[in-house]
Amino acid sequence: MWVMVLFDLPVMNRAERRAYTQFRDFLLDTGFEMAQFSVYLRHTSGKEAVDALIRKIEAAMPTEGKVDILQFTDKQYENIVCLRGRKRNAAQKNPSQLVMF
């Protein structure tokens, strides 16, 4: 299973910027990789791991802002179409277990 976290957090003052940075650092420390600005992606071992991860994200979320969490299967991940400029990148490949750990 894959988990994608998309977020839009306010950064109008120093406290909000600090909360944004702490949330972003939490995602990186939890094993997420940045796919795009404010879009982070992580592979998990299954539904139970996804549920545990969602609870951790909820606990780390700042008091303001919007966070969306998508979950999808390995097969769905392989079907993602990636465009870079006007070029289409090759299909996504699932990481091998050795790469993840």
From TrEMBL:
InterPro entries: CRISPR_associated_Cas2, Virulence_VapD/CRISPR_Cas2. It is an enzyme of class 3 (hydrolase). Its EC number is 3.1.-.-. Mg(2+) binds at D8. Its cofactor is Mg(2+). One of its GO terms (biological process) is maintenance of CRISPR repeat elements. GO terms for molecular function: hydrolase activity; metal ion binding; RNA endonuclease activity. Keywords: Antiviral defense, Endonuclease, Hydrolase, Magnesium, Metal-binding, Nuclease. It comes from the Bacteria. Coiled coil: none annotated. HAMAP family: Cas2. Belongs to the CRISPR-associated endoribonuclease Cas2 protein family. CRISPR (clustered regularly interspaced short palindromic repeat), is an adaptive immune system that provides protection against mobile genetic elements (viruses, transposable elements and conjugative plasmids). CRISPR clusters contain sequences complementary to antecedent mobile elements and target invading nucleic acids. CRISPR clusters are transcribed and processed into CRISPR RNA (crRNA). Functions as a ssRNA-specific endoribonuclease. Involved in the integration of spacer DNA into the CRISPR cassette. This is CRISPR-associated endoribonuclease Cas2. It comes from Roseibium limicola. The gene is cas2.
